[in-house]
Design a protein that fits this description.
Elements (H helix, E strand, L loop, with lengths): L2 H17 L22 H5 L9 H8 L10 H29 L7 E4 L5 E2 L5 E2 L6 H4 L3 E4 L19 H8 L3 H4 L19 E8 L2 E8 L2 E8 L4 E5 L15 H22 L11 H9 L5
Antiparallel strand pairs: 1-4, 2-3, 5-6, 6-7, 7-8
Helix pairs in contact: 1-4
């Protein structure tokens, strides 16, 4: 469902929402996301001199996001990036529409974040779900606090998606609730706060399975399948992750591997308490998931 359709759905809920303030509203958009769409006028601003031959990429990425073998040089790659960037600008516009329709005011808490980024040949692939480099795992985490408190503040320490709920609980004054979760409120992260390990993993593809750990400036990637077994980067000195230091920092690799295994086990233990549910999907729902790259 494209962003304008999502906004129209929200608009149908507005009479109920406005009568029941305060309310919690979760709006999930799938754009920007593969398949990438061209949105004007932004695409032409990003890529003003597209050739008719390059227009073939519109058809390719509308079917599936993995088009590495179809790119014929750096210009084709830039064309696909421009499609994605125009998707982002389009969503920016649709967020503005949403905020205007909902009527965001000074007392509201607004959070904008994402579940993943996108890779465009920085490390040889296109898309997401297979590797854990920064282009895939570094996502926005934007907050508008009530009364616009701390406007313009930037948190320098690495944070995680698991910090979203503790942050909401902190804003609402639910300190007890926030202690039940692994994350922590980003409002507590000032210059005195200590960096803590950030964990990420991907198991979406059978042939590509990786786990990653970020501690301060250091990032360790353990590839169970699909790549060198250990990779180590100093993100402060090498934000593009080009210089693998695993061979020259064996002691750091060993320490981070132990911590990575601990956090992975913590996640498995937490998941073992969940009761599995069986859900039957319609063929239309299955096709939507396939178009997004999920399912087989």
């Amino acid at each position: 469902m494209a962003a304008p359709e999502v906004n129209r759905q929200v608009e149908q809920w507005l009479p109920i929402l406005q009568r029941s303030r305060p309310f919690f509203l979760w709006v999930h958009y799938v754009d920007p996301h593969a398949p990438y769409r061209r949105h004007e006028p932004w695409f032409s601003e990003f890529f003003p001199d597209a050739t008719p031959e390059q227009r073939r990429l519109d058809r390719l990425v509308s079917k599936h996001w993995s088009v590495v073998e179809d790119l014929r040089g750096e210009r084709d790659r830039d064309y696909v990036v421009a499609l994605y960037d125009s998707d982002i600008r389009f969503l920016d516009e649709q967020l503005a529409v949403l905020f205007e329709k909902v009527g965001i005011d000074d007392g509201d808490l607004v959070i904008v974040t994402a579940d993943h980024g996108e890779e465009f040949l920085e490390h040889g692939l296109i898309g997401h779900g297979r590797k854990l480099y920064e282009e895939s795992v570094r996502v926005p985490f934007l907050l508008k606090l009530p009364q616009n408190e701390r406007a313009g503040t930037r948190v320098e320490l690495p944070v995680s998606i698991i910090d979203v709920f503790p942050t909401i609980a902190d804003v609402l004054g639910l300190a007890g609730a926030s202690r039940q979760f692994q994350g922590r409120s980003v409002l507590k992260l000032d210059e005195k706060a200590q960096a803590r390990p950030i964990y990420a993993s991907t198991t979406r593809f059978e042939s590509w399975k990786s786990r990653a750990l970020v501690v301060g400036d250091w990032k360790f990637i353990h590839n169970l399948k699909g790549g060198p077994s250990s990779e180590l980067f100093n993100l402060a000195a090498d934000p593009a992750e080009r210089n693998d230091l695993a061979a020259t920092e064996p002691e750091r690799v060993a320490r981070m591997r132990v911590e990575l295994d601990r956090l992975a086990q913590l996640g498995r233990d937490a998941g073992s308490h969940r009761q599995p549910e069986s859900v039957q999907l319609s063929e239309e729902e299955r096709e939507r998931l396939r178009q997004l790259g999920y399912g087989d």
